[in-house]
Amino acid sequence: MKSFEADGSGFTARVGRRLINRQKLTRYVDISIYRLNKFNADDFIKNTFYKIFAVGQKSTWQTSSWLSGGNQVENQNLIKENLSLKEELIILKSQAEENVTLRAALGISQERKENIILADVLNKDFLGNFLLVNKGSKDKITKGLAVITPDGALVGKVEKVYNNFSQIILITAASSSFEAEIQNETGVLAVVKGNGSDKISFELVPQEQILSKGNLVKTIALGNAFPKDILVGEVLNFEKESSSSFQKGSILPYFLRNSFKQLLIIIDEK
């Protein structure tokens, strides 16, 4: 009869192999999504691909639910009970996190007087400019809708809509650009741009404006890029350009402060 330690080691090895396979699958999906976008694949093909891999990718972004796949260990009741307890803990944790997110979404919806749809994050593209979520045209999602975290920080906007999924362009993406307000003593407009990293930049702030590190940055209604007063982040640093009449600097985007598994899509004002 095999010892508990031996079976435990075998179980650990099998879990390790599954984790490696999961990582390989995630890498394959990331590269595939990048290629689909690069070569402008047909929307039907993209939607079908996303639908096939949605379940696996959701578990990659969320709690490590690969442990709860009903793993069977040969004739070891103790290990089975251990797995069962882990399953229950994962389910309870997932339910608790979802309840927290739903309560936050309800609070934001009431505060902002807007309709909000909760969406699961499925994947991040190869270059880190986009996210894929599990809501699409069948859920009344349309291009251009603002996307925020459960605590109200701006993430980006809907760039591409499929039947079952949507692609979200992040405010940190190099192609992202919008106007916002830096909340100094007077409130000054700035052009905010992504640079493909974990920070965003601002420019075209008049030299005479007094800025401070930590000034909050919020969206404005001008141009209809985003609804008004969504929190973007805070000023990290700034400099006055000697060759022009303006200042520029960088902003820490608040959506990167915490990890997230779900996002809120703002549908419209009530």
Keywords:
33% helix, 3 helices, 270 residues, 6-stranded antiparallel beta barrel, alpha+beta, disordered N terminus
Topology, please?
Layout: H1 4-38, H2 43-61, H3 77-112, E1 114-124, E2 130-133, E3 146-148, E4 154-161, E5 166-170, E6 177-182, E7 188-194, E8 200-206, E9 216-219, E10 231-240, E11 246-253, E12 262-269
Give structural notes.
The structure is a single chain. A 6-stranded antiparallel barrel has the order 1-2-5-4-3-12. It is elongated and about 60 Å long. The chain has 270 residues and is an alpha+beta fold. The chain has one domain (1-270). The protein is 33% helix and 30% strand. The chain has helices at 4-38, 43-61, 77-112, and strands spanning 114-124, 130-133, 146-148, 154-161, 166-170, 177-182, 188-194, 200-206, 216-219, 231-240, 246-253, 262-269. α1 packs antiparallel against α2. It has 3 helices and 12 strands, in the order αααββββββββββββ.
